[in-house]
Design a protein that fits this description.
45% helix, 10 strands, 4-stranded antiparallel beta sheet, alpha+beta, Alpha-Beta Plaits, Arc Repressor Mutant, subunit A, 252 residues, single chain, 3 domains
Length: 252
Amino acid sequence: MAGHSKWANIKRQKAVVDAKRGVVYAKVAREIIVATKMGGSDPAANFRLRQAIERAKQEGVPNDNIERAIEKGAGQGNADNMEDLIYEGYGPGGVAVLVKCTTDNRNRTAGDVRSYFSKYGGNLGENGCVSWMFKEQGEIAIDKSAHFDEDALLTSAVEAGAEDLIADQEEPMVICPPERFIEVRDAIEKSGHKVTSGEVTMTPMNTVEVTDESLAKQLLKLIDALENHDDIQHVYANFDMDSDWLDEFMSN
């Protein structure tokens, strides 16, 4: 399994400590606020808001928090002057790193992101330097140990708008366009299959294998530091590495 996928799976399985839950809630609230400001407060007509609400529910954010964030974004509260930013660069070992942020202070965020890249052996680059290596798509993982009928799954998913099914792995993965994610996921569940995880993500079109353990640890420290920053919503990277190094890092 490619490193970026393994990293995502480990994070999903890792228990979220109380100290970090507030950070998660804050990140999701910012995304809801910006989505509402950009496309309105009706989830049915605002795909980005629907995505943000879905993520909030997956993270266990209370409905009251979600509603307050929507109200702020709609101008019914004291909404911060937030904006979306994307930073691109290279981590140790030449790994492409794409960072998506939602911030009310671009100078603060830019300085922090630059310092992380510098501290952990990476280089922050110009806009567009690595984004071309990634494709935005929906990814929905299926529990193979439960009910699994490949033909029925593929039929249901394709009819809802899916593009592909990768069945020859531990967790089969349905691939779909970002705008069809919710419809495809719902169709899969209605077909009797169990969804273990799902998200709209930036998937690398190719990966860089990191074979040096010291570089691998530096890279993981960079990604971890970025992901723990309040202003940063998502971090994507195109690395592949020994799974044992990932397990060891996440267990510390």
